[in-house]
């Protein structure tokens, strides 16, 4: 007597790779007279361990001047800027897949297009 069995094995991807940032610059320029809510930068990361949802967060350097949308990577102005007080920010952004994460530092430079508005 012989018996035959079939076993189906489904191999799942292990979450062993952190997200990586793509399609972004590390330096952005913004005029000090732009209104609160203005899009300053957009960061994007991909996770090689698909499917994965990436959440973005500000880690350091924003000093209450910027906000980052966790689902889109949109960095927006949260408060007005004054070039005399500070002319650049180094904002650390983190992309996380819930297990692993990666960071990038963006430099935001404030400029005056024609005159100092403050």
Describe the SSE topology.
Layout lengths: L19 E3 L4 E5 L7 E4 L1 E3 L8 E6 L5 E3 L5 E4 L10 E9 L4 E11 L7
Parallel strand pairs: 2-9
Antiparallel strand pairs: 1-4, 3-7, 5-8, 6-7, 8-9
Short key terms for the protein model shown above:
single chain; 118 residues; Immunoglobulin-like; three-stranded antiparallel β-sheet; 9 strands; rod-shaped
Summarize the structure.
The chain is mostly beta strands and 118 residues long. It contains no helices and nine strands.
Count structural domains: 1
- How much of the residues is beta strand, in percent? 35-45%
- Coarse morphology: rod-shaped
- The secondary-structure class comes to mainly beta
Question: What is the CATH architecture assignment?
Answer: Sandwich
Q: How large is the count of helical segments?
A: 0
Low-confidence stretches: none
- What is the third-level CATH name, the topology? Immunoglobulin-like
How far the N terminus sits from the C terminus, by CA atoms, comes to: 92 Å
- Report Rg: 21 Å
- Helix percent reads under 10%
> CATH superfamily, please?
Cadherins
Topology as a string of helices (H) and strands (E): EEEEEEEEE
Q: Which CATH first-tier class would you pick?
A: Mainly Beta
Mean of residue pLDDT values:
85
Largest sheet: 4 strands, mixed
Please give the number of β-strands: 9
